Structure formats: C-alpha cells, structure tokens
C-alpha cells in the first residue's frame, strides 16, 4: 500500500477545442458530429480528424444531464465465463449498490484495440468512473482515459505507475512463490500449461527466473488458448507428455489444473505420486476435487470491494490516504502437490 499525492487531472477537451483544431465554428463541428448526413463529407472528415487529435469524447447524453452525476460505473473485463472475474464483478456491484451507484458491465476480450474502442464508447455516456482489468492498455486508450478526466481503477495487477488508482497483486511474486514451493518439495522436472495473456505471462516469468537461479532452466511449456477450459487442460497435458516426462505440472489456472489431473488419471498416472499438479486462483471447486488442488489464493471479493470504494470515495470528494492497494496472495497446499 502507498500514500500518493496526485496533481489535479487535466481539463477534458471540449467542442470548442475541436473547433479550433479543425478551423471551423463550434456550430459546424456540432452539426458534423450530431447530423453528419447534413454536412459536407470533407467537413465531417476534418472534424473527425480534429476529434482524434484532441481526444475529445462526444457527449451522448442530453445537454441538460451533462453537468449531473450519472451514478453509473463502467466495469471492463476480458471475459465473464471465468470464476476468477465473476467473484470480483459481483463484489464491485454489491459495494457500488450500497453507495448508490449502478454498474455497467462491459466485456472487452483480450485485444487492446477492442478494449480501447469499447472504453471510448463508454466514455461518451459520461460514467462517473471506470474499472479496467489489468495495466496493459493501448496508447490510444491511455490518451482517451487521461483526456476524459474520469476516475479510473485498474484491478488484478500491480504497478507503481497506474493510470489513476489500482487494486491488485504482483503476478511476478506469485511465480516466485510457486518456484519456492516446487524447490522446497523437491520437484526438479516441471512442465507448464499456460494461457497466453499478460498477467499469466508475468507469473510464468517470475516462476522461470526463480527456477533458473537453482539451475532448472527452460521448462517445457504448452500454450493454451483463452479462455482456459477444462478440455484444454486435458489436451494440454497430452501435449506435454509427448515432450518428455515430468514430476510436476504447473498450470496458469485451477481450471487447467483440474483438466490435467483428470487426463493424468485417465492415462494411468497417480496424482501426486507419479505426477503432481499445481493451479492458480483457488476457485470454488479447487478444495473439493479428488485430489484437492494445490493452488495460489487471491481474495477476489476484496479486489472488488476496494476498487468500488476507491472510486466512490474519489467521486464524492472524500479523502483518500492510498490509491495503490496491494492485496497480496497466499499459497494453499493441498493433496495434488
């Protein structure tokens, strides 16, 4: 956790700024944006270029509402068919409701360009605040967010330089903690089942760097497409076993770990006697599988609660002692490893 003093946000670009950039009157710019069919195409083209250059966000609400709070918070997540995000989303919604706000849930997938386009559309509805998943965003999105002067909380990651506020944990440290566990238990031949997203990549980097310091280099990796699914865990283990023999399989999610365990047992391998398995997330089923899954636990509900509280406090002008919250994590040792 850290205390920070942040400068006042920059003024959001206005219609007059666009008019000056385009060399046109504000009335012409307004017509070009609201009724482009009544304006010459070349003029519309010039206005759109000025909008892009200034970072102006057209107001999609009625003029009389523009000065009022919308009581709406936009929450942008990559997917909703993942318990990892569902618990956080529900927690955000519950906490916001207590404070009198409504949540607008938006699914952006994992492409930065899609996220940027979605956020620009959201901002045109003038939300009171935005929650973004992760810290890896396109330059376009960062520019639009900063120009909009709207409170933002990034979640599920950690950096000393967020866009505004942040609630999360260090994925690199999760990887290092996993490596420490493997070494402490005496595992020397790890294989990795891993999704190809930024946060998982950070965990893998922390894991591999920590293992390399103990002369365990370049563990075999099978990349798994997003979103992580049970079937992908089964197929991923089959692919790994074709690469060699292992004493432990480390997975980027509990869902993959569950699939890997079922595939191992179907192949006649005992878990953990012949092959240990480790997951991530401590999802609801992890403690109740057979064998139960050794994993890393992150308090998904707390992420949501703290994110909603930071936003509501900022919107309402309440004092904030911290704008970066590290909720940490802990390793959960169970039967699978």
UniProtKB/TrEMBL annotation:
Xref: CDD domains: HTH_LacI, PBP1_GntR
Gene3D superfamilies: 3.40.50.2300, lambda repressor-like DNA-binding domains (1.10.260.40)
All residue ranges annotated as the HTH lacI-type domain in the record: 13-67
Lineage: Bacteria, Pseudomonadati, Pseudomonadota, Gammaproteobacteria, Enterobacterales
InterPro entries reported for this sequence: HTH_LacI (IPR000843), LacI/GalR-like_sensor (IPR046335), Lambda_DNA-bd_dom_sf (IPR010982), Peripla_BP_I (IPR028082)
Record key words, sorted: DNA-binding, Transcription, Transcription regulation
The protein's name: LacI family DNA-binding transcriptional regulator
Pfam family, any one: Peripla_BP_3
MF terms (GO), sorted A to Z: DNA-binding transcription factor activity; transcription cis-regulatory region binding
Organism superkingdom: Bacteria
């Amino acid at each position: 956790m850290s205390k920070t003093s942040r400068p006042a946000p920059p003024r959001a670009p206005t219609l007059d700024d666009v008019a000056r950039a385009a060399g046109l009157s504000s009335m012409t710019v307004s017509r070009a944006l609201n009724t482009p069919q009544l304006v010459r195409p070349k003029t519309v083209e010039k206005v759109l270029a000025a909008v892009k250059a200034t970072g102006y966000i057209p107001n999609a609400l009625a003029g009389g509402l523009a000065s009022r709070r919308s009581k709406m918070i936009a929450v942008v997540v990559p997917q909703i068919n993942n318990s990892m995000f569902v618990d956080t989303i529900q927690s955000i919604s519950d906490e916001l409701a207590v404070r009198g706000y409504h949540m607008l849930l938006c699914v952006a997938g994992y492409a930065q360009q899609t996220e940027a386009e979605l956020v620009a559309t959201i901002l045109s509805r003038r939300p009171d605040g935005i929650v973004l998943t992760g810290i890896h965003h396109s330059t376009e999105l960062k520019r639009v967010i900063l120009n909009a002067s709207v409170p933002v909380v990034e979640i599920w990651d950690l950096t000393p330089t967020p866009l505004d506020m942040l609630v999360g944990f260090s994925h690199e440290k999760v990887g290092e903690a996993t490596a420490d566990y493997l070494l402490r238990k005496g595992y020397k031949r790890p294989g990795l089942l891993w999704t190809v997203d930024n946060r998982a990549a950070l965990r893998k980097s922390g894991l591999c760097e920590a293992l390399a310091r103990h002369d365990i280099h370049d563990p075999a990796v099978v990349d798994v497409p997003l979103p992580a699914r049970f079937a992908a865990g089964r197929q991923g283990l089959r692919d790994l076993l074709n690469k060699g023999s292992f004493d432990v399989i480390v997975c980027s999610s509990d869902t993959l770990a569950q699939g890997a365990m079922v595939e191992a047992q179907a192949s006649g391998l005992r878990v953990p006697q012949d092959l240990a398995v480790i997951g991530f997330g401590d999802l609801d089923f992890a403690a109740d599988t057979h064998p139960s899954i050794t994993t890393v636990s992150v308090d998904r509900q707390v992420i949501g609660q703290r994110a909603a509280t930071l936003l509501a406090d900022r919107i309402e002008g309440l004092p904030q002692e911290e704008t970066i919250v590290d909720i940490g994590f802990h390793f959960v040792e169970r039967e699978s490893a």
